[in-house]
Specification:
With 314 residues, this protein is an alpha/beta fold. It has two domains: 183 residues, Rossmann fold, CATH 3.40.50.720; 105 residues, UDP-galactose 4-epimerase, domain 1. 42% of the residues lie in helices and 17% in strands. The chain has eleven helices and 14 strands. Strands 3-2-1-4-5-7 form a six-stranded parallel β-sheet, with helices on both faces. Helix 1 links the parallel strand 1 and strand 2. Helix 4 runs parallel beside helix 5. The two termini are 38 Å apart. Bound molecules: (3R)-3-hydroxy-L-norvaline (VAH). (3R)-3-hydroxy-L-norvaline binds next to loops. The site of (3R)-3-hydroxy-L-norvaline has 13 residues, from loops.
């Protein structure tokens, strides 16, 4: 058990929920935080609004935080519906965290980016680590700006900040909120409950995705890598599996043969079409030994097994 105190923001979200549990098995103390009240009376939970710079500094100082995982963010679809809020939470909130980390000399900070930093002019297949980034969503703009600020805080202020361009993340323990890739989580719940799903992303739009266990391992492996192995201080490309709604439905049919999908694309289809289809993560593999472990069918089988067991007990 490493003798350090970890602070997680956005700990009630899709990633934070699971990352907190994993870090609690590795570190002496994990302080979870989110904007919501603490209904369950967890003594190591702090209600924290990332726009409250003074409170952030107070929490980091009081708990002598050794690492920060800053996950609080407004995702792509919700960000299009409320651009100002997305910019405030994702950028101003992020800079509040970085400034407090510098002030309190926090040894390491994780602030994730996303494949949403890529856009229509980005090469679609095997998108390189260094390439055109022309995001069309507010979320993607905030994540690209966040990458450049991270590089600035590393080179000019000596902050050991690390980041990953997360693909769409698939998990069964906590629901995603307000994203475009949420379809790839909803589909499993609907497949089990109703045997059918109407996708808001068109059938042939392939997107880079990753099963949550791979994403959590990538995050912790990046944060625990020796400093001299980290050559990218904007954000690393990482890849898991790429698939389209049609390919995901075919994988589900191998477990639930009668499952049916149909399509009603909405504005989120346009967002998905602006993103790459697959990611070249060779630099992460070389620098700190990244390698995914789940393929599409392994993810599908585990998602359905766990949801049937945990949530729907069918
Ligand atoms: C979203 N799940 O859909 C997030 C993610 C690449 C997508 O950033 O907005």
């Amino acid at each position: 058990m490493k003798d350090q105190t970890i602070l997680i923001t956005g700990s009630k979200g899709q990633i934070g929920t699971e990352l907190a549990n994993m870090l609690k098995t590795k570190y002496t103390r994990v302080i979870t935080s989110d904007i919501h009240k603490n209904e369950i009376g967890d003594k190591d939970y702090v209600q924290l609004n990332v726009l409250d710079k003074n409170r952030i500094s107070e929490v980091i100082g009081d708990y002598k935080v050794g690492q920060i995982y800053h996950l609080a963010a407004i995702l792509s679809a919700k960000g299009e519906e409320n651009p100002t809020l997305a910019w405030e939470v994702n950028l101003t909130g992020g800079l509040n965290i970085l400034d407090s980390a510098v002030l309190h000399k926090v040894p390491r900070v994780f602030w994730p980016s996303s494949i949403a930093v890529f856009g229509p002019q980005t090469p679609k297949e095997q998108t390189p680590q260094h390439t055109v980034t022309d995001p069309t969503t507010i979320y993607g703009i905030t994540k690209l700006a966040g990458e450049r600020w991270s590089h600035h805080y590393y080179t000019k202020k000596g902050l050991d900040i690390r980041s990953l361009r997360y693909p769409g993340l698939i998990s069964y323990k906590a629901m995603p909120g307000g994203g475009t890739t949420d379809y790839a989580v909803e589909i499993f719940h609907e497949a089990i409950k109703h045997g059918r799903y109407t996708s808001f992303v068109s059938s042939d739009v392939r997107l880079p995705m990753m099963y949550m266990p791979d994403a959590l391992r990538a995050t912790i492996e990046l944060m625990e890598a020796p400093t001299d192995q980290i050559k990218i201080r904007s954000a690393y490309n990482v890849a898991g599996v790429s698939f389209s709604p049609k390919e995901l439905a075919a994988s589900i049919c191998k477990v639930i043969p009668d499952f049916e999908i149909d399509y009603a694309p909405d504005f989120r289809d346009g967002i998905a079409q602006s993103w790459p289809s697959s990611i070249d993560d060779s630099q992460a593999r070389v620098d700190w030994g990244w390698k995914p472990e789940y393929d599409l069918d392994q993810m599908t089988q585990e998602m359905i097994k766990e949801l049937k067991g945990v949530k729907y007990s069918v």
